[in-house]
Amino acid sequence: MFLLICYKIIHITLRFSVFAVRLEYYLWIFVVQFLAWRMLVKVKCREKQRYVKITESDGTYDYQQFHQAVIEKFGLPHFTNIVYKDSSGTELDADIFSELLEKGKELITAVVNDDSEDISSEASCSDASTVILDEIPSKISRQDQTEREVAKNMVNQVLLRKPGGGGGEVFQEYHKTKSLTSATRRLLVNILVADMVEVHGWIPSQAIKVKYAQGIVALFPYLEDPLSKHGYEHFYDAASGSGYISWRLKTVQRSLADHSRSPVAVGESSGGPKATRLLATTIQQLTGQECEEAMSMMNHSSDEAVVREKMKATFEHRQKLVHDPDTSMDVLDIFPRFLDIPGLIEQDFLALFGEETSGKFLAKWPTFFRPHIIEDAKGLVSTAHVEDLLCSAQGDGDRGWDSDIASLCLLLHLIPPTSKGHKKAAKVSALQAEDYLVKYMQIGTSMQIFLSRLEPSQPFMLCIGEQKNKIHKFYIIIDSQAVPCRAQTSVAAFDELFKAHFVFGTSYCEALDGFYSFIQTAVYNIDVGKTKEKPRVRELRARYLNVKK
Fold first, then answer.
1. Per-residue DSSP letters for 459-516?
2. Neighbours of 113 (CB within 10 A)
3. Percent of the chain whose pLDDT exceeds 70
4. Which of these, 48, 138, 288, 341, is most buried using a 10 Å CB contact count?
5. Which residues contact 111 (CB under 8 A, 6 or more apart)?
6. In angstroms, rounded to a whole number, what is the distance separating the alpha carbons of residues 465 and 456?
7. Beta 60-61 vs 85-86: how paired, if at all?
8. Does the pLDDT at position 433 exceed 90?
9. What is d(CA 541, CA 15) in angstroms, rounded to the nearest whole number?
10. For position 183, what pLDDT does the model report?
């Protein structure tokens, strides 16, 4: 105002001077520049509206200085997330902030992306820019703040209760890198799911799972996904039931449902996949600090030969984990190279039983057991499905499984599932039991989506190909994770599936117990006389082995 009055006086005094025009021009330029340097912007935060000064430096307006001034003016926390927008709703970045202000009357707004009503119509100014802002982050509405804070505190307390059990490691890595490695992220999820099961039971509600996921990204904001609706869907997506929490929870549910995870009761079988046995390997085993160093090295090595060598040297330690109920579920997390290097299942099985036992299935099945099983299956009650299996097993089918998988399914019909206990209605048919043994997935289907939809189950074989009798890739699915097979044929892939039960100490699926017991004793000759067997298993074994004689 003072400058305008001075300008007016000088203008009147010099209006008759020959230099009036030139002096008036320079005075006007000075006034404009001074006013620009002292530019004030109306700022509205919540229900308060105040002026904030924007400072010009080297011909531009200092965005950071203005942003800091806004925070100080309204007493906001320094980490407050403020989003500025122009009158069209386009987000205003720091690099174009000055250019937009130079337009003078351009309306600027800063609005959070929540459900609040559009307030741009409320903000207008004829001679200065207006900024309306809110400190609530874009993915969080005001009504969600309390729930988010509660969830954050809950996750924080869970991790603080486990400082020596991994919680401290999670905090340390995040504060150092603002991120988490895959191994530490798995540790975080494992700790939280364990707490979830302990507090809320092993079938927690959807709301509980959402709360834990929400708490993770609230406590560790750099883990939030900026492109998803809520930011925590990679930990738990309520719409699809997928995410790290969901996958881990399925693993826990499968383990809890597996009664054989508990110690073997008196009078029960002492053989089978869960039995502790002497090692057949002669390779020196590492212990203590040396073992830990070897595990760390192989988990970060790109040299497959090094990984295989370290896996051999840590086999005894791995078997201890497998047979410990507290750690048996975490073997794939502790030894993740099973998931990217085919053949490690076979390597561990050799360390348990040696080459002679390891090679028996591939030596005996195609030439001896398969023909006898096909012949026996001709006496089964004729159904359309059994007839299709017989055609495929004899090489006459063009749409079903190949000969080896079809004959394995026929063996399952020869040794069908039996009911346990008094609830006979719970019996699973042989046709239904096939789905616990092998599944088919067409090429191009998402493996991640397939795994996310799985219910807790024992290991099974996944075949990926153009059609069922033209398979290109085999996987063993364990704890909702895909372990690649080294095998190129279905008979070799099933060999790996069977061996995976012993390598990971996992009991047979109840519906397949008789089927696997026959394979174990009659084909591999493992724990004969130590394993509890159904009469039908003994009958078929006696029939086939007597024929051999």
1. -EEEEEEEETTEEEEEEEEETTEEEEPS-SSHHHHHHHHHHHHHHTT-PPPGGGHHHH
2. 15
3. 69
4. 341
5. 83, 85, 118, 119, 120, 132, 133, 134
6. 24
7. unpaired
8. yes
9. 121
10. 82
Q: How confident is the model at residue 19 (pLDDT cuts 50, 70, 90)?
A: very low
Q: Where do the H-state alpha helices sit in 18-141? A: 20-37, 63-74, 94-101
CA gap 400, 404 in Å, rounded: 11
Query: For the segment 470-496, what is each residue's pLDDT rounded down to a tens digit?
Result: 899 999 999 889 999 999 999 999 999
User: How large is the average pLDDT for residues 161-177?
Assistant: 80
Q: Are 26 and 36 in contact (CB under 8 A)?
A: no
Backbone phi, psi, residue 441, to 5°: -135, 130
Q: How far is CA 146 from CA 152, 177, 463, 541, in A?
A: 10, 28, 47, 65
pLDDT at 229: 82
Classified as helix, coil or strand, 299 is helix
Residue 503 Cα to chain centre, angstroms: 24
Query: What DSSP state is assigned to residue 51?
Result: E
Please name which of 289, 280, 284, 276 lies closest in space to residue 324, comparing C-alpha atoms.
Answer: 276
Outline where DSSP puts E strands in 94-225. Answer: 108-109, 130-133
369 or 66: which leads in pLDDT: 369
Q: Does the reported pTM lie above 0.90? A: no
Say if strands 481-484 and 470-478 run parallel, antiparallel, or are unpaired. Answer: antiparallel
Find tokens 């006496």 and name the residue.
379
CB 129 within 8 A of CB 113: no
> pLDDT tier at 89 (50, 70, 90 boundaries)?
low
Rounded distance between C-alpha atoms, residue 412 and residue 409, angstroms: 5
- Phi then psi dihedrals of residue 109, to 5 deg: -130, 155
53 bridge partner residues: 40
Token pair of 366 as six digits:
């195609």
pLDDT tens digits, 314-329: 999 999 999 888 888 8
Q: Which of 459, 464, 468 is nearest to 495 (CA)?
A: 459
- Calpha distance 282→297 (Å, rounded): 22
CA distance 222 to 80: 15
At residue 92, the pLDDT reads 64
In angstroms, rounded to a whole number, what is the distance separating the alpha carbons of residues 346 and 2?
A: 90
